[in-house]
Automatic annotation (TrEMBL):
<feature type="binding site">
    <location>
        <position position="121"/>
    </location>
    <ligand>
        <name>S-adenosyl-L-methionine</name>
    </ligand>
</feature>
<keyword id="KW-0949">S-adenosyl-L-methionine</keyword>
<keyword id="KW-0963">Cytoplasm</keyword>
<dbReference type="GO" id="GO:0008650">
    <property type="term" value="F:rRNA (uridine-2'-O-)-methyltransferase activity"/>
</dbReference>
<keyword id="KW-0808">Transferase</keyword>
<keyword id="KW-0698">rRNA processing</keyword>
<dbReference type="InterPro" id="IPR029063">
    <property type="entry name" value="SAM-dependent_MTases_sf"/>
</dbReference>
<feature type="binding site">
    <location>
        <position position="62"/>
    </location>
    <ligand>
        <name>S-adenosyl-L-methionine</name>
    </ligand>
</feature>
<comment type="similarity">
    <text>Belongs to the class I-like SAM-binding methyltransferase superfamily. RNA methyltransferase RlmE family.</text>
</comment>
<comment type="function">
    <text>Specifically methylates the uridine in position 2552 of 23S rRNA at the 2'-O position of the ribose in the fully assembled 50S ribosomal subunit.</text>
</comment>
<dbReference type="InterPro" id="IPR015507">
    <property type="entry name" value="rRNA-MeTfrase_E"/>
</dbReference>
<feature type="binding site">
    <location>
        <position position="80"/>
    </location>
    <ligand>
        <name>S-adenosyl-L-methionine</name>
    </ligand>
</feature>
<dbReference type="InterPro" id="IPR002877">
    <property type="entry name" value="RNA_MeTrfase_FtsJ_dom"/>
</dbReference>
<feature type="domain" description="Ribosomal RNA methyltransferase FtsJ">
    <location>
        <begin position="28"/>
        <end position="204"/>
    </location>
</feature>
<dbReference type="GO" id="GO:0005737">
    <property type="term" value="C:cytoplasm"/>
</dbReference>
<dbReference type="InterPro" id="IPR050082">
    <property type="entry name" value="RNA_methyltr_RlmE"/>
</dbReference>
<keyword id="KW-0489">Methyltransferase</keyword>
């Protein structure tokens, strides 16, 4: 079947993307690793000993960044509907975290610990219908925010990918209500034409 012009354009852009090439050389599973590396360099979200939760973790690009930094004294619990190849130092739970059974599994993995940082690079499967995709993406980040409110320790951080569009301003306002400081980041590895930005929220009010 012939590829559409759009998918051919995306494929060409993807293959020639400097961050895709860099990820292959550096051994990262995704170009998204560089987004989190840049954010963490600026905002110091996690450090050795941090307890981190990675939502929507597959294929593992963000977990690959976090695990070596938090080290043996820290913890990383990752979750995704899709399977993810194992990474040393990562407790991976496959399933939809909005389902009670999966949610319970995540809480069991945490034990009595509260979380220092919740990170989310989740995005819905694209339907091609802008409005539908925007609502679906906003629904996912709302769920990620709910999770962070349930598991974060006071003073904790939240970092999530958000697409600008319908519901974005209201969402930022909602995040501000639970955190002392909210920043908007557009990392260099994020394609300029993409509407994605990363909200970095610090100082969870608990």
């Amino acid at each position: 079947m012939a590829r559409s012009k759009t998918s051919k354009k995306w494929m060409d852009e993807h293959v020639n993307d400097p961050y895709v090439k860099k990820a292959q050389v550096d051994g990262y599973r995704s170009r998204a690793s560089y987004k989190l590396l840049e954010i963490n360099e600026k905002d110091k979200l996690f450090r050795p000993g941090s307890v981190v939760m990675d939502l929507g973790s597959a294929p593992g690009g963000w977990s690959q960044v976090v695990a070596p930094i938090v080290g043996d004294s820290g913890r990383l619990i990752a979750s995704d509907i899709l399977p993810m190849d194992s990474i040393i130092g990562v407790d991976f739970i496959q399933g939809d975290f909005t389902e009670e059974a999966v949610y319970e599994q995540i809480l069991q993995a945490l034990g009595d610990n509260k979380v220092d940082v919740v990170i989310s690079d989740m995005a819905p499967n694209q339907s091609g219908v802008k409005t539908t995709d925007q609502y679906a993406s906003m629904h996912l980040v709302e769920l990620a925010l709910d999770m962070s409110r349930n598991v974060l320790k006071p003073g904790g951080c939240f970092c999530a990918k958000v697409f600008q569009g319908v519901g974005y301003e209201e969402y930022v306002k909602d995040v501000r209500s639970s955190f002392d400081k909210v920043l908007v980041r557009k990392p260099a590895a994020s394609r300029p034409r993409s509407r994605e930005v990363y909200l970095v929220a610090k100082g969870f009010k608990g």
